[in-house]
Amino acid sequence: MRPVDYARPKTVAQAIALVAADPSARYLGGGTNLVDLVRVGVVVPDLLVDTTHLPLAGVEATPDGGLRVGATTRNSDLADDPLVRRRYPLLARAVLSGASGQLRNMATVGGNLHQRTRCPYFTDLAAPCNKRDPGAGCAAAGGFARSTAVLGTSEHCVATHPSDLAVALVALGARVELTGPAGTREVGLTTFHRLPGETPDVETVAARDELVTAVLLPPPPPGAQAYRKVRDRASYAFALVSVAAVLETRDGRVSTIRLALGGVGTVPWRARVAEAHLLGAEATEQAFSDAATAELAHAVTLPDNAFKVDLTRRTVTAVLRDLSTLRDLEVTA
Questions:
Q1: Is 73 within 8 Å of 59 (Cβ atoms)?
Q2: How far is CA 24 from CA 14, 42, 43, 103, 154, in A?
Q3: Rounded CA separation 106/109 (Å)
Q4: Which of 14, 86, 164, 293 has the most neighbouring CB atoms within 10 Å?
Q5: Distance CA 331, CA 314 (A)
């Protein structure tokens, strides 16, 4: 057994100082992902800095009509918050579909954004993985790849980003507040996660010692909202395809469209191409299907995951078709 030091700072400044001073230190939230990675030896820290006792929990309304979500807010509390359920129902639905109740009770918002891929080769120390060991190669590209990505991949990595929460936040135009030794800055969720390119081990734009302190949601966009997740079993499974969508129509045409995809991208995927095709277009099933097809035109598939292209097209089409006939509803389950 390898010893690991543990610290429980009382302030954000203390937490940042501890991580900044130790190159192997890691921030620890709920531990639902990091602890597993430490156990199998994927992450080998000398120090874990517990952030869950920092004064960062809670959901607050902002003067502009948005929300500020503290980074240590538990996922269960986020999904149950009345303001979230009323203003951002797709966010609540995404969180509720993300894991078991026990995991949601432990997992934090900040930790969720930093969770690592569930590609089986990433946690198999006997397999080459550029995300775990840069330059080693990508076993998934020539191995079992049913769960891997078709958008945003590179020859160095095809691993899918696993977060449901992040997909919803991308669709809603959220921003991440990062605090580090140099101060506080904000980064859009669409740029927070990095495409793998030649450096799949560098997964976000956050510096190693920067701490996610909050997620900032703008006022809710007009229109009906939905989050749909297609998976192998009804609960506690990662997405094969997920769709976060906001749709408003006026006089039969699309006036507002926000669309993000999960389960198919190496990052939470904002479907900008599909949005551009739909804005101002007639709100028809054929238009929805054509927009999804355009978004997937540059998908790169492997024999095991090629089914995701058609599954994504059909799921996007179904979600938008349903939203075009519905009004926004508060989450009731």
A1: yes
A2: 16, 13, 9, 26, 28
A3: 10
A4: 164
A5: 24
DSSP letters spanning 125-137? TTS-BTTTSTTS-
pLDDT in tens, the chain (333 residues): 688 999 999 999 999 999 999 999 999 999 999 999 999 999 999 999 999 999 999 999 999 999 999 999 999 999 999 999 999 999 999 999 988 888 899 999 999 999 999 999 999 999 999 999 999 999 999 999 999 999 999 999 999 999 999 999 999 999 999 999 999 999 999 999 999 999 999 999 999 999 999 999 999 999 999 999 999 988 788 999 999 999 999 999 999 999 999 999 999 999 999 999 999 999 999 999 999 999 999 999 999 999 999 999 999 999 999 999 874 444 444
Give the separation between CA 198 and CA 201, rounded to whole angstroms. Answer: 9
Structure tokens at 93: 């639905």
Dihedral angle, C-alpha 286, 287, 293, 295, nearest 10 °: -160
Answer whether 156's CB lies under 8 Å from 194's CB: no
Q: How far apart (Å, rounded) are the C-alpha atoms in residues 319 and 128?
A: 38
Full-model pTM: 0.95
Cβ burial of 303 (10 Å; 0-12, 13-18, 19+) is exposed
CB-CB contact of 287 with 279 (8 Å): no
Task: For 32, list phi and psi in degrees, rounded to 5.
Answer: -70, -15
Positive or negative torsion for Cα 157, 161, 166, 170: positive
Which is it for strands 211-217 and 224-230: parallel, antiparallel or unpaired?
unpaired
Torsion sign (Cα): 126, 237, 189, 19: negative
8 Å CB contact between 25 and 19: yes
Contact, 299 vs 150, CB < 8 A?
A: yes
